[in-house]
Amino acid sequence: STLHQEGIETEMIHIGHLQIHGCIACYKCKETGKCVFNDCVNQIAAKLEQTDGIVVGSPVYYAGMAGTLKSFLDRLFCSAPYSMRFKVGAAVVSARRAGTVATFDDINRFFTISQMIVVGSQYWNEVHGAQAGDVEQDKEGLQTMRVLGRNLSFVIRSLHLGKSQLQL
Q1: DSSP H helical ranges for 10-138
Q2: pTM of the entire structure?
Q3: In the chain, at which residue ranges do the beta strands (DSSP E only) sit?
Q4: Tens digit of each residue's pLDDT (9 = 90 or more) over 37-60
Q5: Of 113, 115, 143, 138, which is closest to residue 127 (Cα–Cα)?
């Protein structure tokens, strides 16, 4: 991937097949530092604390993000016991035809409310195809992803440089 070529370490985590309970707004996480539902959300939150950022990808189902992802993001962004301020965030969406921009916007709202730095590309970060392999034919979408990877790398490197110069 472009991120690997740029020297950025990544880990891909698939959550679509997992059972993830929706947030119940109990706010026990504010007392305990983790969500009351002890599943992958708490595990991934612990990993995310040590990272520079997150790329969230979603297929588009019924003109919106996948339900499992919505539950995951609600709980992750509510329960994380650390600040996501100045972490980098990017949304990537995939659809047969429609719903990509709405899904893209929905994911980005998690980043902006958390004071994260949202990274874009030359177009909305989306690819199109009816089946998983079809996106390999979306040349414009793939170019958009490559540019996104380079932009993510630049912003992450710039943040490291800035933090060291500013002694943050």
Answers
A1: 29-32, 40-49, 67-79, 100-113
A2: 0.91
A3: 53-61, 64-65, 88-95, 117-118, 126-128
A4: 999 999 999 999 999 999 999 999
A5: 138
